[in-house]
């Protein structure tokens, strides 16, 4: 492949919208340690198909939300998300989570914006097998255990990033991730939530704002949560039910049959979207084992977490919906 138009290799901080080229498999393998990682972040077999291709930076991945231990934001160094590039799960048991992939800066090179597209390199079967073996093991009980970017995220981002670290917001703006208004919203929501959490621990119930609930003011109730199956299929048009109706289906932990509903999801209440797919198989990021959902959930087209109330986290996690939270919409004539 002709690479004469590639800018000479330098340590560079990429920006949103910048054109980059994914390095060859040979170059990337040379950056990996014995575990197949750079900074504890694995290069996964599903990423090989993008080697040699030119893509645009979607977000600079300077931080990541901790969905395992709920420690908050954690600092991620020298990584980006490429526009629209999600894991297809082909080397991880058919996992349907479709996580947005992290790309270490070491795996990319800057390209002049005027150059043409590149079709990419052929996938190296030997490298694919090697990476697949590194990312899979078998437990004593015979269960498959997978290792991927989601399972290793706490090791790849070991440092908790406090709300008061103003440098993260400067980076958000400079990188092009968000604008000033989004930064202001994130700060105000973060400060409000800290106050609410403190008041819930220290203040009498009568003095708390909205009972000490964090932003979004979600609450559930005691008892078993209801199940509402409507057999939604890809392509169907649905509307997300009002927040008040959805809260009636949640327990005290804001779960319905083990699936959570949060403030980020409540932003989509009342909106319409098409069903993208049904999901019943995902890798458990805490254990690496495959989870088979007894109650499949729904993914909607274009609906992902936007980090609006979560310090502008760029992770863009796919939102999972219970069918009971959605209602069919008749298509316009």
Global structural class: alpha+beta
Distance between the termini: 50 Å
- Spans of at least 5 consecutive residues whose pLDDT stays below 50 are 1-10
Largest sheet: 5 strands, antiparallel
What Rg is obtained from the alpha carbons, in whole angstroms? 21 Å
**Roughly what is the average pLDDT, rounded to an integer?**
92
From the spread of the alpha carbons, the general shape counts as globular
**Numbering strands along the chain, what is their spatial order in the largest sheet?**
8-7-4-1-9
| SSE arrangement, N to C | EHEEEEEEEEHEEHHHEHEEHEEE
The tally of domains stands at 2
Summarize the amount of helix as a percent range.
Answer: 10-25%
The total count of strands amounts to 17
Overview of the structural elements:
With 333 residues, this protein is an alpha+beta fold. It folds into two domains: 138 residues, no CATH class; 113 residues, SH3 type barrels. The protein has seven helices and 17 strands. The strands form six sheets. A five-stranded antiparallel β-sheet has the order 8-7-4-1-9, with no helix packed on it. Strands 16-15-12-17 form a four-stranded antiparallel β-sheet, with no helix packed on it. Strands 2-3 form a two-stranded antiparallel ribbon. The radius of gyration is 21 Å and the shape is globular. It starts with 18 loop residues before the first strand and ends in a 5-residue tail after the last strand.
């Amino acid at each position: 492949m002709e690479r004469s138009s590639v800018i000479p290799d330098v340590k560079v901080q990429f920006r949103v919208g910048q054109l980059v080229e994914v390095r060859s498999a040979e170059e990337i393998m040379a950056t990996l340690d014995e575990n197949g990682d750079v900074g504890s972040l694995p290069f996964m077999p599903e990423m090989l198909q993008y080697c040699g291709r030119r893509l645009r930076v979607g977000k600079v991945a300077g931080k990541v939300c901790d969905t395992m231990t709920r420690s908050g934001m954690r600092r991620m160094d020298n990584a980006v998300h490429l526009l629209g590039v999600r894991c297809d799960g082909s080397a991880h048991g058919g996992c349907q989570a479709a996580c947005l992939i992290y790309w270490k800066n070491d795996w990319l090179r800057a390209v002049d914006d005027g150059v043409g597209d590149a079709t990419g390199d052929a996938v190296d079967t030997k490298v694919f097998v090697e990476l697949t073996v590194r990312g899979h093991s078998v437990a004593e009980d015979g269960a498959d255990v997978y290792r991927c970017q989601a399972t290793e995220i706490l090791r790849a981002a070991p440092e908790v990033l406090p709300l008061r670290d103003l440098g993260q917001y400067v980076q958000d703006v400079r990188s092009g991730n968000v604008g000033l208004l989004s930064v202001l919203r994130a700060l105000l929501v973060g400060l409000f939530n800290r106050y609410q959490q403190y008041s819930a621990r220290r203040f009498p119930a009568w003095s708390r704002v909205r009972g000490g609930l964090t932003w979004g003011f979600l609450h559930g109730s005691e008892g078993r949560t209801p199940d509402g199956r409507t057999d939604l299929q890809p392509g169907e048009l649905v509307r997300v039910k009002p927040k008040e109706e959805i809260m009636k289906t949640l327990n005290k932990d804001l779960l319905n049959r083990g699936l959570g509903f949060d403030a980020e999801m409540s932003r989509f209440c009342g909106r319409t979207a098409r069903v993208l797919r049904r999901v019943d198989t995902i890798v458990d990021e805490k254990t690496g084992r495959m989870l088979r959902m007894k109650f499949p959930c729904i993914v909607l087209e274009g609906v992902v977490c936007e980090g609006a109330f979560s310090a502008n986290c760029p992770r863009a996690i796919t939102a999972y919906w219970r069918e009971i939270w959605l209602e069919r919409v008749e298509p316009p004539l």
